[in-house]
Design brief:
The protein has about 120 residues and is α+β, with helices and mostly antiparallel strands.
């Protein structure tokens, strides 16, 4: 049992260390990584409602106002035919992972019911 526990801990430690290339660039600045501050702030979950037929779209973004403009310009294929849109719900969360969890919750049966009951 102790052998497996030690192996598990070693795996966790090895996998949690930052990937480091053989250059002088710090791990936090290497391609594909983001600063901790950027990762921990600024994510929003939003719901928009079509003024054409009342359907609701749920998404995540760092800038929901810009994203709404993209939906209303027709830049998003899935929402293009149902313009214009307006934001009916918006929530700021700490990270992208939390935003995805909240998005998934809002897309569930409970979440859809919650969004439908928001006064227009």
């Amino acid at each position: 049992m102790l052998k497996y526990l030690c192996s598990y801990i070693a795996t966790l430690l090895c996998c949690s260390l930052p990937f480091r290339r053989s250059s002088t660039v710090p791990a936090c600045r290497q391609a594909g990584s983001e600063s901790l501050l950027r990762e921990m702030t600024g994510w929003h979950v939003y719901a928009i409602k079509s003024q054409k037929d009342g359907r609701i779209y749920v998404g995540i973004s760092r800038n929901p106002q810009r994203r709404l403009l993209e939906h209303n310009r027709g830049d998003t294929k899935s929402t293009k035919g149902y313009r214009p849109w307006r934001i009916i719900y918006q929530k700021q969360v700490g990270s992208r992972i939390e935003a995805r969890r909240e998005e998934k919750r809002l897309k569930s049966g409970y979440g859809k019911e919650f969004l439908r009951n928001i006064p227009a």
